[in-house]
Amino acid sequence: MSKYFSFLLLLLFFSTKLFSQNISSLKIGEKVPPLYLNNNENNSHSFSFTKVKKLIYLHFWSTSSDSSIAELSEVNKLYNEYAPQTYSNNLSFDVITVAKGSDFKTWKEIIVKNKLNRELNYISLDGYCDLFVKTNKIDRIPYSLLVDSTGGIILKNPTIFQVKNYLSKFSADNTNNIISGRVVTGTKDLNPLAYRKIYITNKDDDTIQTIITNNLGDFTIKNEYPKNELSIKISKYPEITGTDKVFLANNKGKVIGMFIPNSNGFTYKFLAKDVFILKPIEEEEDPGIASLNYKKKLFFTERIFHSNETSLSDTSKKRLDIIILKMKENPGFKVEIKSHTDITGSPEGNLVLSKTRAKNILDYFVLKGIDKKKIISVGLGDKFPIIICDDGNCTPTELELNRRIEFILSK
C-alpha cells in the first residue's frame, strides 16, 4: 500500500512538472484560470475572471523584490485614475495584485503603506494549491497581464503607459459623467480663482486629478465616480487674503457651498446634491471675452500668440475683433494691454518679445479704428506668471497659460 501511495505521489510530481509552463508562454486571447489566494485577513478566496465582466489588470510582485515594491505606487496611481471611470459596453476597470513567495506580515505592511489595502490585493502563500500560480511559473517579478471581460488575455506584461493607452481608447466620455463648477473667493465681492491648480481627491485622500481653472475660475471633472466621494483641495494662493473665504459655485456664479480652511489651504467635500446642481459646462469659443463684465474691468485672454511668435494670426485677430467691438459699443472706455511671456528663453529676450507683441496688438487696434490715445501697451516679459510650475518644469498647458495677454478696461 505504501509503495502504491509513493507511486501516486511520484506520478503527481512528474505530471505537475510536465504540464507546468512559464507564464510568459501564455498567448494573447488565452483564458486566465481562476485564482485561489489569501486576502488581507489571511482567508482563502477564489476569483474567476470569466464571471466579473470587468477589464482587469493582474499584477504579480514580491516583497523580496525592491523593483516590484517600487512599481506598486504606479500600479496604485493606475487604479486611482482609471478605476473610477466607465468604459464602452458599461464595463469597469479594476486592479488585482498578487504577492508571490512573500511573508504574510511583510506583505500586509507594504500594501497598507502603499494604500493598497482594498479588496483585490492577494498573496499566494506556499503550501496553498493555487493552480494558476503553480501551473504557470511566474518566472519574472514584477509581471502583469491585462485581461478582458471574458477572462482572455489582452496584453502580456505591458507597461503602465500601454495599459493607460488601451483604457483611454475605450473610455466612455459620457456627459452624464461630467460635473463642472466655479471656484470664487472674497467676502462681499466674489472674484474667480482664475488660472489656479485645484486637486481632486478620492475618499482615501489620494489626488486623482489636477485641474487648472480657466479665467472665470471654472473647472470640469470627467469620468470620476462616485462623485459624492470626491473632494477639491486648493492651496493658499496670494489672491485669497485676510478674511476672504473660498466658495464653490455653478458656472453661472451661484454659490452652492463653502470650502473649509485647513493648515495647507482649503477643502470642499462634494455632497450628493452637488452632483445634480453642477451640470456640464456648455463650450464657448472664448467664455472670458463673451461674458465680459465691465464692472470688474479686468479679464484675461490667452492663445493670442504661439511660442516665439509676434505676428497676429487670423484666429488671434478674430479674438481681438471681439474686444474691439466691445470698445466701440462702449466709447467711454480705455484699454491697457499687458503682454506676458512664458519662462522659455532668457528674461531679456522675453521682455523684448512681450513688448513687440503688445505693440503689434496696439497697431491692430488703431488699424481697426480705436483711438491711439485710449490705448496703453506694455510688455512685462516672464516676470508675472499666473502658474508657478512645479520644480520649474512647466507643462505645455502651463506654458500656454503664462504666455498671455491681459486687457484692463477702465473709464
Name of the CATH class of the largest domain = Alpha Beta
Which structural class do the helices and strands define?
A: alpha+beta
Tally of strands = 23
Strand share of the residues? 25-35%
Q: What is the total domain count?
A: 3
Spatial order of the strands in the main sheet? 6-5-4-8-9
CATH superfamily assignment of the largest domain?
A: Glutaredoxin
Helix content: 25-40%
Number of helices: 11
Reported by name, the CATH topology of the largest domain is Glutaredoxin
Distance between the termini: 107 Å
Would you tell me the overall average pLDDT?
76
- Under the CATH scheme, which architecture of the largest domain would be assigned? 3-Layer(aba) Sandwich
User: What are the low-pLDDT stretches, counting only 5+ consecutive residues below 50?
Assistant: 1-20, 127-131, 281-298
Largest sheet: 5 strands, mixed
Shape: elongated
Radius of gyration: 29 Å
